[in-house]
Design a protein that fits this description.
about 575 residues, 5-stranded antiparallel beta sheet, elongated, about 25% helix, alpha+beta
Length: about 575
């Protein structure tokens, strides 16, 4: 039985290394969002059918899952609460829990990878807007979590996203793709689970955002996905396993010429069983289909060519993880979230053998009906599992959604009427003779004209809260979601009291000015790119200087990481 590595971010492959002649393969996935679930899916490589076998509760929602050295244990990371969970791979029963601590106290766990030599450890990386960190976790004899061994920080601006492990000269090396610092870190892992920094390799070019990476089994190359430029970076490694900073370093663009770089952000990378085909995925922003590409490598790991880039069935997603199948050189599995989307791809239309029996292919084809997990499970699971679909399709009967929708409808229509009546009362009051003003129109205008903006402003807080919820973006919010409404309402009440005392004080506008000032000073590159596609700046003054200058080419623009 197989379980491929790659959930709704990643699915796993249980048991059986290498290829097999069996027609049925098992794929496991874990929910990125609530409710926390594990799904077991069967893939028939003869009929190309995907079938849901079962769905069970998991201890947590997992952004990433991986396997230990012998595929007997599954390790799950969580972005929601920083909890890592271990499960028996055969039964999916919970075997251990570890909370991020030490240098990672209060941080999430966005990624994990297990060492391959005894004694065994699991390395967890925390991803966010700042203070990227990692920790090594000791495991018991059966592979379940024991306790943290060591934790460490990278840099204040670090955002550790992808991890990879490779044994070099008898020592396991940890490679970290740091999206925030724009570097690749190399650490040595000793027998006690402690790490020692060996290298901080800065990438050539600002704001590349290295997201995921894998190491060629021969230790010759590190293959890195560059989210900002939508390209594959092949970094030459020296005999010690370090990045050869004076050696070969090549970028390979996945987008076709003339395609807008701003519509895409690259994601995952995986290597086939024969180590000759490298799969690469790219997420599409709203309204743009994601992409899957495949590169041909030579026997030493050098990139020979990009064989193809094809559209996937996903759009406006946050994952697009890809895993080369362990049963075949030709298959790969793509999973995505939101929506629990699974596609199985197979290389197609062989051209010619490059050397030996390794073929180059012109394209690939997906299974005829890619499986969206929410179409296979019952309605009680489907509604909360797919948050994006829940926003678009409100016929699912979700009471919270209907209440939210009703409030927005009432705010938009009811408050418009309030404004109309209020200004009509003001006009009526203005037409009265001087000194003969009536109290009624005055009360109506002061009440209805002022009350409408308050409820409209409240709808903004609700929309902001929904955006934070749907994008899992609370770590980027200046105010925690549970305090959001309370903070703004308290500010509005204070503002109303001050205005009634002849003070001029508008809480919402003041906060907006502060936020805009803070963002423009500390994140000028992000604001510049979002507003006009301009190059990243060093400070707010530089951003002001660049205003009105010509736009840069789409191909060099970068976008802010959403997840």
């Amino acid at each position: 039985m197989y379980i491929e590595r790659n959930t709704i971010r990643l699915a796993l492959a249980l048991a059986g290394a290498g290829r097999t002649l069996a027609a049925i393969h098992r794929i496991a996935s874990a929910n990125r969002y609530t409710p926390p679930k594990f799904h077991s899916v069967a893939f028939d490589d003869e009929t190309n059918e995907l079938t849901l076998v079962k769905t069970i509760d998991s201890n947590n929602s997992h952004v990433w899952i991986s396997l230990n050295h012998d595929k007997s244990e599954i390790y799950g990371s969580s972005m929601d609460n920083g909890r890592l969970s271990s499960y028996d791979a055969a039964t999916l029963e919970l075997t251990g829990i570890v909370q991020t601590s030490g240098a990672c106290l209060g941080q999430n766990s966005a990624f994990n990878v297990a060492t391959r030599t005894e004694p065994y450890y699991v390395i967890s990386g925390s991803y966010g807007s700042r203070n990227g960190c990692a920790m090594s976790i000791a495991v018991t004899d059966n592979g379940s979590f024991d306790d943290m061994s060591q934790s460490w920080r990278y840099e204040a601006v670090s955002s550790a996203h992808g991890l990879a492990i490779q044994e070099v000269n008898g020592t396991e090396l940890l490679y970290t793709a740091d999206m925030g610092a724009n570097v690749i870190w190399v650490h040595a892992i000793d027998k006690s689970g402690n790490v020692e920094e060996l290298q901080r390799a800065e990438l050539e070019g600002a704001g590349l955002k290295p997201r995921h990476l894998i190491i060629h089994p021969q230790g010759t190359y590190a293959y890195v996905t560059l989210e900002a430029t939508n390209s594959l970076l092949a970094l030459k490694l020296d005999e010690a396993g370090l990045v050869d900073e004076g050696g070969e370093s090549s970028q390979f663009q996945v987008l076709e010429e003339g395609t807008s770089n701003a519509n895409y952000w690259s994601a995952g990378v995986s290597l086939s069983v024969n180590k000759r085909y490298l799969w690469f995925t790219t997420r599409g922003r709203a309204g743009t289909s994601g992409l899957i590409s495949c590169f041909l490598l030579d026997e030493h790991g050098s990139v020979v060519s990009k064989m193809f880039t094809l559209e996937t069935g996903t759009s406006n997603t946050i994952s697009s993880s890809v895993t080369a199948a362990p049963w075949s050189d030709e298959h790969a599995i793509l999973t995505d979230a939101p929506g629990a989307y699974i596609e199985v791809w197979k290389l197609d239309e062989p051209l010619e053998a490059t050397d030996g029996d390794v073929l180059e292919y012109a394209t690939a084809k997906e299974n005829p009906e890619a499986v969206r997990m929410s179409n296979l499970v019952d309605a009680s699971l489907r509604a909360p599992e797919d948050r994006a679909m829940r926003c678009e399709h409100h016929e699912d009967g979700n009471p919270a959604h209907k209440l939210y929708e009703a409030y927005l409808h009432w705010a938009a229509n009811g408050m418009t009427r309030c404004e109309t009546i209020g200004y009509a009362a003001r006009a009526s009051s203005a037409m009265e003779e001087e000194g003969c003003w009536q109290l009624g129109p005055y009360i109506i205008e002061t009440t209805l004209i002022l009350i409408a903006p308050a409820f409209m402003a409240a709808s903004i807080y609700m929309i902001l809260g929904r955006i934070i919820l749907l994008t899992d973006g609370e770590r980027h919010a200046m105010i925690r979601k549970k305090w959001l409404t309370m903070t703004f309402v308290a500010g509005d009440v204070l503002s109303l009291l001050l205005q009634s005392s002849a003070f001029v004080y508008v809480f919402d506008a003041t906060l907006m000015i502060l936020v805009l000032g803070w963002m423009n000073w500390f994140h000028p590159g992000e604001i510049g790119l979002l507003l006009r596609g301009g190059p990243a700046g060093k400070n707010g003054l530089e951003l002001m200087y660049k205003t009105g200058r010509s736009k840069i080419d789409d191909q060099s623009s970068a976008w802010r990481e959403d997840v």
